[in-house]
């Protein structure tokens, strides 16, 4: 890849900017597979709405979490 240099004139200052090389550590096959998974996910009819939230709790967070969940249920926000 040839080196690319950009030249700018800012308030009569001549600025020369040499672009750095782009490094992508993902293998091309992995990127293609990831792109395919994203397209499949976007076209899926089972997407959740941004307002659908799942809150997981356990037995040790019952008092604070119950108030938190009750607030979600009552106000819907």
Notes on the protein architecture:
With about 80 residues, the protein is an alpha+beta fold. The chain has one domain. Helices cover about 40% and strands about 15% of the residues. It has two helices and two strands. The chain has helices spanning about 30-40, 60-75; strands at about 5-10, 15-20. A hairpin with a 2-residue loop joins β1 and β2 (about 15-20). It is elongated. The N and C termini lie far apart (about 50 Å).
Short description:
The protein has 77 residues and is an alpha+beta fold. Helices cover 38% and strands 16% of the residues.
List keywords for this structure.
alpha+beta; elongated; 77 residues; 16% strand; two-stranded antiparallel sheet; 2 strands
Poorly predicted ranges: none
- β content, as a range? 15-25%
Nearest-angstrom radius of gyration? 25 Å
Oligomeric state of the chains present here: single chain
| Helical stretch tally | 2
Cα separation of the termini: 51 Å
Shape: elongated
Mean pLDDT: 76
Q: Structurally, how many domains make up the residues? A: 1
Q: Report the major sheet.
A: 2 strands, antiparallel
Read across the widest sheet, the strand sequence of neighbours is 1-2
> Given the helix and strand composition, which structural class is it?
alpha+beta
Q: Summarize the helix and strand pattern as letters.
A: EEHH
The helix content is: 25-40%
Tell how many strands the DSSP assignment holds.
2
Secondary structure blueprint with pairings:
Blueprint: E1 5-10, E2 13-18, H1 28-42, H2 62-75
Antiparallel strand pairs: 1-2
């Amino acid at each position: 890849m040839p080196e690319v240099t950009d030249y700018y004139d800012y308030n009569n200052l001549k600025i020369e900017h040499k672009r750095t090389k782009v490094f992508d550590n993902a293998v091309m096959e992995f990127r293609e597979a990831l792109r395919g998974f994203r397209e499949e996910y976007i076209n899926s009819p089972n997407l959740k709405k941004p307002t659908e939230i799942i809150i997981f709790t356990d037995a040790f967070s019952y008092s604070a979490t119950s108030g938190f969940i009750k607030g979600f249920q009552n106000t819907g926000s």
